[in-house]
C-alpha cells in the first residue's frame, strides 16, 4: 500500500534531484515551475494556500517512492487523467498549447473535485 503525506521543505532536495529534464518537470507540474527546479520555486509554491502537493510513501518500507501535485495535467498523461477521474475528479477545461516544451506546445487539463464531492465518497 501507498500513503500520501504532505510535501514539506525537508522533501525539496529529493524532488529536485529526481527532476532531471524539462519534459519530466512539465509532466509532473504543468506550468507551476520552470526548469531547472530549485528550492526558491518550491518554497513559494508550498506557501500558497491552494497547493495540493504530496510525497508518496510505501507504507511497508517507509521509502519515498514519488511525488504528486494535483493541478494541471498534460493531456498525454492518460494514466494520471484516468486515475484522477476514477476517484472523482472532473475535467474543468483544457489549456490549449499553454506550455512550450522545446519546439512543441503541450495542452494541459485543469481538473477539480469539490469538497462535498470528496466528503460523499
Overview of this structure, please?
- This protein is of the alpha+beta class and 121 residues long.
- It folds into two domains: 69 residues, Gcn5-related N-acetyltransferase (GNAT) (Aminopeptidase, 3-Layer(aba) Sandwich); 51 residues, no CATH class.
- 31% of the residues lie in helices and 33% in strands.
- It has five helices and six strands, in the order βαααβββαββα.
- The strands form two sheets. A three-stranded antiparallel β-sheet has the order 1-2-3, with no helix packed on it. A three-stranded antiparallel β-sheet has the order 4-6-5, sandwiched between helices.
- InterPro entries: Acyl_CoA_acyltransferase.
- GO terms for molecular function: transferase activity.
Low-confidence blocks of residues = none
Could you please say which CATH topology of the largest domain applies here?
Aminopeptidase
CA-atom Rg in angstroms: 15 Å
The CATH homologous superfamily name of the largest domain equals Gcn5-related N-acetyltransferase (GNAT)
Structural class: alpha+beta
Supply the number of structural domains. Answer: 2
Global shape: globular
CATH class of the largest domain: Alpha Beta
Number of helical elements: 5
Q: Give the neighbour order of strands across the main sheet.
A: 1-2-3
Give a short account of the largest sheet.
Answer: 3 strands, antiparallel
- Give me the CATH architecture of the largest domain, please: 3-Layer(aba) Sandwich
Helicity, as a percent range: 25-40%
Instruction: Summarize the helix and strand pattern as letters.
Output: EHHHEEEHEEH
Mean pLDDT: 89
Distance between termini? 20 Å
- Counting DSSP E segments of at least 2 residues, the number of strands comes to 6
Beta-strand percentage range: 25-35%
